[in-house]
Amino acid sequence: MTTPALPPNFEWGFATASYQIEGAVAEDGRGKSIWDTYCHLEPTRTKGANGDVACDHYHRYEQDIELLSRYGAKAYRFSISWSRIIPLGGRNDPVNEAGIAFYNRLIDGLLVRGITPWVTLYHWDLPQGLHDRYGGWLNVDEIQLDFERYARVCFERFGDRVKDWITLNEPWIQSIFGYSTGGNAPGRSSTNKQSTEGDSTTEPWITGKAQIMSHARAVAAYDKDFRPSQKGKIGVSLNGDYYEPWDANDERDKEAAERRMQFHIGWFANPIFLKQDYPECMRTQLGSRLPRFTESDFEILRAAETDFYGMNYYTSQFARHRETPALDTDYVGNVDELQENKKGLPVGEKSGLHWLRSCPGMFRKHLTRVYRLYGKPIYITENGCPCPGEDKMTREEAINDPYRIRYFEKHLDSISKSINEDGSIISGYFAWSLLDNLEWSDGYGPRFGVTFTDYDTLERTPKKSALLLHSMITERQTVKATS
Ligand code: PNW
């Protein structure tokens, strides 16, 4: 058997996000974000954890660039903290030069070592000022103007050197976890007993539209005023699992699987990539709870040419049809989600987190489906896992991570197959994550890093997977697929 091939110019590296690694939350003029508030006002919801120190990347970024260099990474995906750039967030609020200077040091440090910066503008850390002023993502008209201004500041100040932009990370998680389950900041929910505010019947859909329009405004601004001189590309990172029918012979389960993926991905991809209304199944189920796009919204959507589909992929599930949606999870459509099918077969091997099973076969189907539906080059902007039991391991145990190595290998093989056998265009891969870091409301337990972080000393130690990813990728680039 030959090793399947990846294209010679395949982009690859590691990913992180600002609040998960930076720390230094009160330094150099940074404003508060909704995650600071959430962790401090509601510590029981984040296992007592917060990002005050996290991996202290703000002070140790040079060491982290060294790690990337040692791992042979071609690229590094990180996110900018909006509250460091515009502490109060809004379009008439001052820009913080010290925040700009930090990201300049990081970007320049990467470029000196030949590592390409991939910048996410928004990875869930909304300036608290905007939430307080007008409801943040709940105010569709205001937030899109403030996001556009923030994006313009970033293009102006970093775009001479940054050529790869991602507007938003996982708008689905921001809307559903932030406004339906209440498990992420700002923690609004009408079904979560810990929440005292929020209307989960409408808020996820309002904040979804706010994110779609914010993405489109930022891309349209880039197209008009920056792309001609800066010549970069800009995309969005969407999450979404692949779903197979619980009963492979039941038409209703087949429809449920497709419906589930439309609720996950089509929600954002239809307006952004197809410049169409939300998927029909969402309209049918949600009716007027789902905001409409006006003609002027469509003009903005049409003016925004998104260059690539950023895919965050971790796992897959089975979908079983329901007659009526469950009250507290109607955001998934009238579907039950299961990790075993009707025959009792598991969807994949267990990892170190309950929601994450290793499902590389379904990853290939997912890639091919997304490429066929939306027709844009795909970059995997996140993929990775904690190993079984890793949260309880010592450093010496954790740095030996064969489960993660196998996970990467199998997922790289699925990418190769989707390219070579199914004809997809897949142009890059970012492993999540460079470092063990703050796993949001799961705190510091789950370890997704290829680098072990000792949270007492903040010392970093490479795991075996970190040193092997480079060779896994180059092997797949040098051997041609035969089939
Ligand atoms: C992504 N789920 O979030 C985020 O982009 C990262 O910041 C995060 O650390 C990483 O995946 C690992 O979780 C997700 O429950 C969080 O299905 C939760 C889920 C999926 C993605």
Automatic annotation (TrEMBL):
The keyword Membrane does not apply. Residues 187-203 have a biased composition (Polar residues). It catalyses: Hydrolysis of terminal, non-reducing beta-D-glucosyl residues with release of beta-D-glucose. Its EC number is 3.2.1.21. Keywords: Glycosidase, Hydrolase. It comes from the Eukaryota. InterPro entries: GH (IPR017853), GH_1_N_CS (IPR033132), Glyco_hydro_1 (IPR001360). GO terms for molecular function: cellobiose glucosidase activity. Residues 184-203 are annotated as: Disordered. The keyword Hydrolase applies. SUPFAM superfamilies: (Trans)glycosidases. It is an enzyme of class 3 (hydrolase). Pfam families: Glyco_hydro_1. Gene3D superfamilies: Glycosidases. Coiled coil: none annotated. GO terms for biological process: cellulose catabolic process. Plays an important role in cellulose degradation. Shows hydrolytic activity against several glycosidic compounds. Belongs to the glycosyl hydrolase 1 family. This is beta-glucosidase. It comes from Clonostachys chloroleuca.
